[in-house]
TrEMBL record:
It holds the Pfam family DUF3618. Residues 15-27, 85-94 have a biased composition (Basic and acidic residues). Residues 1-27, 50-112 are annotated as: Disordered. Residues 58-68 have a biased composition (Low complexity). This is DUF3618 domain-containing protein. SUPFAM superfamilies: Apolipoprotein A-I.
Amino acid sequence: MNDESQNTMGSPTPEELREQVERTRDELGRTVEALAGKADVKAQAKEKTEAAKKQAAEKTAAVKEQAASATAQIREKTAQAAQAVKDRTPDPVQEKTAQAATQVRESAARAGQFAVDRTPDPLLEKADRVAKAARANRTPLLAGGAVLVAFLLLRRGRGGNK
């Protein structure tokens, strides 16, 4: 009877005490895990590195997508401009231009053959090696040429302003 009177007066039962202890253990376990996670600097650095890598990859993908879109727009506008010029050019001018282009190609081919016929073999072999090297390294050569042209245009533009 004494036991029952204590239960009704607000004393917890052994089962309630066990549940309370179990809840406290769970909370304490979560707290310890959180503190351990905050104390693990190496893991935090790794997480931040992974997050930065993911963010950089996303930004790179976005920039590539924008560049591809811009390139497509430029190509489309260039094609439209070329078509507009062609549409506005009278047929006789187009025909004369085509004839002139053909004559230039033929003259260049003849001049090239003449140069090959008159050039010594060792020089032709060296020129062939240089041409092969240029084809193998096309991108750096084009980039260098673009930089040179930009430099010359800037230099020319500054010279005219003085």
